[in-house]
Fold:
Amino acid sequence: MHLLAIIKTAFFLPPVHGLALLTVLFIAGICWQASGGLLILPIIVAMGASAIYFQKNNCEPQCIAIKEYAIHMLLAALFFFGGAYRYYQTAHAYAEFNQAITEKILDITGTINSIEKSNAAGYAHAITLVIDNVQQHQQKTHIAPTRNYVIKIYTPEQAQELRVGDIILCSNMQCDMPKNDHFVQYNIKEKITHTFFIKNPQITVLQRPKYSYNRTIHEYRQHITDQLRTKISPPCFALFSTIFLGSRDVDAHSLQTTQEHFIAWGIAHYLARSGLHLVLIIIMLMMLLRFLPLHFYLKQAIVIFIIMGYTCMTWFTISYLRSFLMFILSTLCMTLLIEVQLFHIVTLTALGILLENPFQLFFLDFQLSFALTAALAWYSYLNQYKKIKTLI
Structure:
């Protein structure tokens, strides 16, 4: 008996969807590129193609059709090298920009995307800027490519006239290459092309649009948090802000006391912003809508509208993004009358996030969030498969 059949018999292994195997190959390509290249590349691609073929056709190796095997080999290689290329493309864009601006004094023009309070010592605020133009100080020549790159500027004080959506000119910016590799990887993961720490910023507002979507969302979100901060107690606000808003801009003493209590009871993980909180909100909305005589599709549209509004008012984490995307995909499947397979949805969500930014793979928040969710989804899929096998 073939080894794969033995494994299936021994562990009741159900057929794995081809997308899951291709996603594994995509991840393998990212790791291969990040490690600088390994000699086991042909083996990985061949094994991936064989696994896809066997899982799809459930046949012995002697029955392999050369044409179909070649197609699967090509598909496996496409995903493997696709992962490697996305990692290279992301890292190269960061390195290209930083090499062009390092050891230069710059004048940078861009649009303010966000203004947040900073926890960095000696710097009170952090300004996120989407770059429009970069040129050397007091010169008119461009010295760096601009592809909607994003930079972060830490300043001791925030100028009162600055608002989200403003087009500003940052003059006399000294650029130094970061020496900490972990900080570089974190910047790439957060899609920050470069970070400036400026003691005396020279910022000029060039233009303020009459309307800005980002400014509206930012100011409304800030208004909500300011109102809640004054109306509820500091411990309650610390819990609400941390769990439901994803913001750490709370009183450190209140949050520390709460953390100590949660650690003592062994439930500290509930303080982390996760997809569980989004699921609880969705369940409560579904329960409330059960009492209204509305069409199923209208109820789904109402839930999506409320969740998207809630999402705009909060700060993102990778676990929340995972849960939000899974909710959208599950709702889409139910609307189109497609069977909802949790394991497939987790796989598709992970592939989409890694396509957008492959550096997410190397950080603990992504690893823990998707590993735990995939394990639970696989366990559910395995139990469902066992029940189906007993009925056959």
